[in-house]
């Protein structure tokens, strides 16, 4: 049985209300460390930032896959839920670059 890394919709509001954020070049990472967090992530890509659906979907796929690989490597902190909001800079990047950005955000979050 595999455990999903996708964040259920009901948790988004709680993370935005009670969580903290880290701003990177490619994305903004919102996180909330909590005893009932399951190390899951949600992604947000604005129509205002990415007008074409193809570009929005690519940004979502990039962030999901980068997070999945980071969790698989054990590099993401336990008991923390995440929301990644794409910035314009993610356009044209690959999974490795996106994963490096997510890991950078995770390291920054553990310092605060």
Fraction of helical residues: 25-40%
Strand content is 15-25%
The CATH class name reads Alpha Beta
CATH architecture: 2-Layer Sandwich
Give the helices and strands as they follow along the chain: HEEEHEH
Query: Radius of gyration over alpha carbons?
Result: 13 Å
Major sheet: arrangement of strands: 1-2-4-3
Classification by helices and strands: alpha+beta
Distance between the termini: 34 Å
Count of distinct structural domains: 1
Q: Give the CATH topology.
A: Ribosomal Protein S5, domain 2
> What's the total helix number?
3
Describe what you observe in this structure.
- The chain has a four-stranded mixed β-sheet with strand order 1-2-4-3, sandwiched between helices.
- It has one domain: 2-Layer Sandwich (Ribosomal Protein S5, domain 2).
- With 112 residues, the protein is of the alpha+beta class.
- It is built from three helices and four strands; from the N terminus they run αβββαβα.
- It is globular, with a radius of gyration of 13 Å.
- Helix content is 39%, strand content 20%.
- β3, α2 (53-72) and β4 (80-86) form a beta-alpha-beta unit.
- It starts with 11 loop residues before the first helix and ends with a helix.
């Amino acid at each position: 049985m595999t455990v999903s890394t996708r964040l259920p919709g009901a948790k988004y509001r709680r993370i935005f209300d009670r969580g903290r954020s880290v701003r990177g070049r490619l994305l903004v990472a919102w996180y909330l460390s909590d005893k009932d967090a399951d190390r899951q992530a949600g992604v947000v890509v604005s129509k205002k930032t990415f007008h074409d659906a193809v570009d929005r979907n690519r940004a979502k796929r990039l962030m999901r896959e980068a997070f999945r690989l980071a969790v698989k490597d054990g590099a993401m902190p336990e008991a923390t839920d995440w929301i990644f909001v794409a910035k314009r800079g993610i356009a044209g990047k690959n999974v490795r670059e996106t994963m490096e950005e997510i890991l950078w955000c995770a390291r920054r979050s553990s310092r605060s």
